[in-house]
Design goal:
The chain is mainly β and 110 residues long. It has one domain: Rieske Iron-sulfur Protein (3-layer Sandwich), CATH 2.102.10.10. Helix content is 5%, strand content 47%. A hairpin with a 2-residue loop joins strand 10 and strand 11. The longest helix is centred in the N-terminal third of the chain and has 5 residues. The two termini are 13 Å apart. Bound molecules: FE2/S2 (inorganic) cluster. The site of FE2/S2 (inorganic) cluster has 10 residues, from loops.
Length: 110
């Protein structure tokens, strides 16, 4: 049995897709801080707290599919949350995203 997913509107698609290069959009979904990251025409949702310390990843820099933490420059792949550069060693959670009627919905396990 698969876990139930709660889909919540997090932002307008146009807002995310019109972000300047390098910028991720911080939102709150179901009480969770999440960074919405555009990459190659898709939107990815990443937990917006670094796994290395108390830093908002959305305050960092998005370079392609890599989000750089603003505090110690740890690197994460926004597609799967995997650490891509020290000192980041632990993945950050990622969440499914879908776009409906111009709205970005993020799925959180119920
Ligand atoms: S807090 Fe993000 S790399 Fe240290």
């Amino acid at each position: 049995m698969s876990a139930e997913i709660n889909w919540t509107v997090a932002a307008d698609e146009s807002e995310v897709m019109s972000l300047d290069d390098g910028i991720a959009l911080p939102v709150t979904v179901g009480g969770l801080p999440i960074a919405l990251c555009p990459f190659e025409g898709q939107i990815y949702a990443v937990y917006d707290v670094c796994s290395h310390g108390q830093a908002a990843l959305s305050d960092g820099f998005l370079n392609g599919c890599i989000l750089e933490c603003p505090l110690h420059q740890g690197l994460f792949d926004i597609r799967d949350g995997s650490p891509q550069g020290e000192p980041a060693e632990t993945p950050v959670p990622t969440y499914p995203v879908k776009v409906e009627d111009g709205k970005v919905l993020v799925g959180i396990a119920a």
